Amino acid sequence: MSLPSQRGAEVGRRIGVGLMYGLWRPRVLGAWKVPATGPVIFAVNHSHNIDGPMVMGVAPRPTHFLIKKEAFVGPLDPFLTGIGQLKVDRASADRTAITRALGVLEAGGVLGIFPEGTRGEGDFASLRAGLSYFAVRSGAPIVPVAVLGSSGRPSRLTKALPPLRTRVDVVFGDPFDAGDGSGRRTRKALDEATERIQKQLTGHLETARRLTGR
Q1: What 3-state DSSP class applies to 27?
Q2: Paired sense of beta strands 110-113 and 25-29, if any
Q3: Each residue of 32-78: pLDDT tens digit?
Q4: How far apart are alpha carbons 32 and 52 in whole angstroms?
Q5: What region holds the Phospholipid/glycerol acyltransferase domain (predicted)?
Q6: What is the SS3 assignment for 144-190?
């Protein structure tokens, strides 16, 4: 099974930079906290359609996001695949997506996850177990990422986008390890990791809101 393209993800990052800075006004805080090399998991809150592309564009490293398969429609399918993004079936244990995501981390890449699963309040209130599984299994540190300001009043152009030239803040947090250091992957260990993750992500979101005044 081939890994998603690292070169493609870099192309995606450049496209994202152009689009995000062309259409909105991103303000990026804490990007220096992202480890320069080695596997990393971005845990991103999700309240708007542009959250993934925004992080992809402003992150200091190319990112492979796990994206619901429903987004891979028509010409978007070869495009998203070409820029190194990962299609995932959220209705089942998608072993292909899991294997490819772990492959990204084993190769020292950056995996992007929306741990709340679907778009919602973006407050990390309900986490899925997938994030703790990838973190504990790979040993990769998690970097919390808060995207703030993307879910304000909708644009006149389309309800799916925030108004053009709106300021959107992207705040990267301190990397942390989800596991307890034992390497255990039992259900109990994953549940404990999920609790640790939720505490860290919620704390980061509060800090990010304080920093940005959102």
Answers
A1: strand
A2: unpaired
A3: 999 999 999 999 987 777 888 899 999 999 999 998 888 888 888 88
A4: 19
A5: 40-150
A6: EEEEECCCCCCCCCCCCCCCCCCEEEEEECCCECCCCCCCCCCHHHH
- Return the structure tokens found at 162: 């925030």
Residue pair 100/4 in contact by the 8 Å Cβ criterion = yes
- According to DSSP, the β-strands at 110-113 and 167-172 are unpaired
pTM summary value = 0.89
- Beta-ladder partners of 168: 26
The token duo for 117 is 């699963």
Structure tokens at 147: 């995207």
Which residue type is seen at 19? L
Structure tokens that stand for 10 in this block: 């870099």
Which helix H or strand E contains 64, and what residues bound it?
Answer: strand 63-68
What does the DSSP assignment read for 67-111? EEGGG--TTHHHHHHHTT-EEE-TTS--HHHHHHHHHHHHTT-EE
Domains of the chain: 6-212 (3.40.1130.10)
